[in-house]
Amino acid sequence: MVKTANQTDVGRVRMVNEDRAIVQENLNGFVLAIVADGMGGHQAGDVASQMAVDIIQSELQSIARDATIEQRRELVKQAVELANRQIFDVASERENYYGMGTTVVTVLADTQSVVIGHIGDSRAYRISGGAIEQLTEDHSLVNELVKNGQITREEATHHPRRNVLTRALGTESTIEVDIQDFKWQTGDVLLICSDGLSSLVSSEQLLRLVNGEEEILEDKAQKLINEALEAGGDDNITVVLVSNAADSLSGEAEHFDGETG
Question: Sorted alphabetically, which CDD domains does this protein's record hold (predicted)?
Answer without folding.
Answer: PP2Cc (cd00143)
